[in-house]
């Protein structure tokens, strides 16, 4: 009598068990190293372990949620199902979950957690338990707390086992003076989570901005090859798009390191902040020139009729303003030392924050508002069309509004953070909010590139052409084999009435 072959589910479970037999993304279990013959006991191939007080260990248990935490429980000896029920679940977990009925318990597949007596105990008290698949990764959020606790413990001297459990008691206090305050760990994790979410959203915006910049570059080359020159407003628009693309590329330094910071020398960080401020000011001043051109149709001064002169003037003013901001930002000493790099640090003080808000938002937009008011007055007197009469008018209004909102938000948050920094150190949540405001400032560049692509007619035509070419290419790849041997017939009909043999 033959045996039935294994089912598909059994085969998949066997492969899964074989695949996850080796621990992944964890330091638990045995560590394998590549070595040559007779190198088994060399220092490079062995892991040093330090004991304290003659050996032994201290086992602790704790629970965290988004806004709450339990006490840190020091367990005497090993943890089994009876100890888990009587010393942890009954005095700590069940009262905590009864106070917060909307929560779910998440513990791993340790034998003390999955015992039948523990399962019955939790079911009798209506405790919701999150299922944990076998052989899965250890993605419990409390692992971040254990990591921070491990780092703190490694910074201190090892103590005997009897003193180690006594030294763990400060973790259960809520005093802010304790160096082992679990609430600080939870606040840092929540702040990093907020920063990471903002980083993911901005990364999507950056991808859209880079794709738009590539199509804009194609449109620029296409327009220049067709006309051999660019109109005055078109030149300013392309220069504005270039400044926004530069800002987008500079923002990748933040995307690559958040929620942490870029580590570089002070002079390198100052150069990065100077370039960011210069690119931002270039974009704003180019908007001022575009508003001037849309108001007066053509520049009144002879030099301003040349787009290259306008761009050079914008660069000069932007460099001077960026030098002023760099002087206020600092640092002025120890430029060769390394440290974390923050483009707009709150430690620079309110003077830098107010100067950044005025130079990077208020003054340029006051000029734009004055130009728009003058254009509306001219339109009312001459009964002519103002912004709606040109292709660049809708683009100018859209990008001006977007950059104003983003720069104003970042400037206000920076001034607020500088004031809080003078009153005291910023909390983790406030620093995460500063990161979000920085991403909002950079996202204005991405949105502007997309708006220029969609609202400017030549750029929109280039987008449609690229889309059509991609569609034709995909169709050609799909139908090349089907129609390869089909030949169109050619029939020729001749008139034979005038033919004489």
UniProtKB/TrEMBL annotation:
Entry keywords, A to Z: Membrane, Transmembrane, Transmembrane helix
Pfam families: DDE_3
Transmembrane segments: 200-221, 230-250, 270-295, 307-328, 353-374, 395-413, 433-455
One Gene Ontology term of the molecular function aspect: nucleic acid binding
Secretion signal, residue range per the UniProt entry: none
InterPro entries (UniProt xref): RNaseH_sf, Tc1-like_DDE_dom
Record domain Tc1-like transposase DDE: where: 55-157
Superkingdom per UniProt: Eukaryota
Database matches in PANTHER family: C130050O18RIK PROTEIN
Name recorded for this polypeptide: Tc1-like transposase DDE domain-containing protein
